[in-house]
Request: fold
Amino acid sequence: MPRFPKIAAAATAATVAAALVAGLGGCRGKGDGPLDVVVLGTPRSVFETGPRLSPAGQLVRSATTEGRVGFDELGRVIPALADRWIVTDDGQSYIFRLRDGTWPDGTALTGESARAALRQALDAVEGTSLALDLANIDDIRAMAGRVVEIRLAQPVPDFLQLLAQPELGLVRAGKGGGPMTLKQSGMIALLTPIAPEKRGMPARDDWAGSIRTLRLRALPAAAAVDLFDRGDVDVVLGGRIEQFPRTTMASLSRGTIRIDPALGLFGLFVARPQGVLASAENREAVAMAIDRDALITAFGVGGWTPSTRILPPAIAPTPAPASGTAAATGAERWANLNIAARRAQAAARIARYRAAHGKIAQISVDLPAGPGRDVLFARLRDDLATIGLELVLARDSASADLRLFDVVARYPSAVWFFNQLSCTTQHGLCSAAADTLVASAAAEPDPARRAVLIAQAEDTLIAANLFIPFGAPVRWSLVRAAVTGFAANPWGFHPLLPLAMIAK
Reply:
C-alpha cells in the first residue's frame, strides 16, 4: 500500500481551488489589505446553519453572532454582549450586565430579549453533547434593565467557557449582532469588523486604520495547502491528523506549521461489539497491541504525548490512594509491561478465542479520508497483526467495527470527556454504569467524594474498553510569520476577529 496518494491528484484539486481565487493576488499578511483565510472543509460549510456546525461554520457563527462572552486568540474567555459579570460565592449564580446596544433589527438589547435568545439557543442544541454539558442550567432570569441571571443546579467551574461556544451566539429575528459583518461573494465570505460605537462601546478614532477584511473560504486540504505554498492565502485553519501529510508534500517552512496543544479524545471507538470484539477482554487486547509512540512518529508530529487513559493528567482529579481507584496512582495502563509483553498477553487472549470459536472474521475500521488515513491504517493493521487479528478498511462508517474518534474538548473538565462517550450521545457501545457515576459526581458537593466518583467513572469506562485511547488530538494550522492575531491554544479554535485587527 503506498504511503501517500499520488501528488498529481492533489494538484488537480489545487488547480480547481486556484480558479476560485483568481484575481485575488499574492500574500497580504504584511499589509493593511484583505487577509485571505482558508478553513479545511467543503466550500458551502462556511455558510451552514443549524446546531451541528463544522469548523468553518463555527468560525463564521462566532464572528457574526455574539454570546454573552467569547474567546480571544489564546482561547481565553472575554466579554462579548456582556461587558461584565459576577459569580456568587456558591458558584451557582452568574449575573451578567449587558452592554448598552441594540439588536440588528434596531430594538434595544435588554435582559428579557437576551434571556429569550439564550433559551432559543439552548433549544437548538438539544440532543447534542453540548446540551449535556449545559444540563446544569436551572433557570434564566431577566432582571432590571440589561441584567440577566443564570442559575445552576450545581456549580460548573468552566461555565463561562461553555457560554463562549459558537453555538450559543444570540440571535434576534434570525440575525446576530457581530462582532463582524458577513457578505457572500460566491463561495467566499467577506468578514469585516463592526465599528465599536455600533456595538454599544466607545468609538475609536483610529478604527478605520486598525482593521482589515477577511476573505474566508473552505477548501479541501490539498487545495488549501497548495494555495498557501504558492502565497495565495495567508492562513489555513482546521488541520487534522488525516491531512497532516499534506504539509510534508509542500515546500513549507516548519515555522509556518502551528500545532495546537489540544485536549480531547483521539482513539478508536467500538461501534459494533460483535464477534471477537464482543468481550471487554478482547477489546483490551486490541488496545494493548497498539504502539502509540510509533503511531505518531510515522507522521513526524513533535511534542505529542501518547496515553492509554481517557482523562489526561491535566484534567483528571487525583483521589486519595485509599479510594482504591486506578486513577489514584496516576499511572498509565500496563505501565509495568513493554510493548512486546503486552502483545504476548493480547495474542494469548485472541488465541483462546480462536480455539473456542474457530476462524476470526476481519475487523473493519472507519478512518477519515486523506493521506494520513494510509499512514494510520498501516500502523494499526501491522499492530493488530502481531496478536493475530486482521484489520481492513470499512466500506462505510455504518458497517465499521471500529471508528476513529477525534474530537477536541470544549472546556477543561472530566465531564466533557464522559459526555462524549455517554449512552445519550453514542449509538455504539456505551456504559450506563459510568453514566450513573458521572451524574452522581455532578450532584456531589464534597470535592473529595466527587474526585472519587470521577475516578470510578473513568475506571468503569476503561474496564469496558469501549474506547481505545491513543493520546491527544492533533490539530494544525498554517500561518505566515507576518500574520498577527493567531495563537495556538488547547481548544484548537481560532476566532476570526483577532486576525482582522492590524497590529500597530
Observations:
- The radius of gyration is 24 Å.
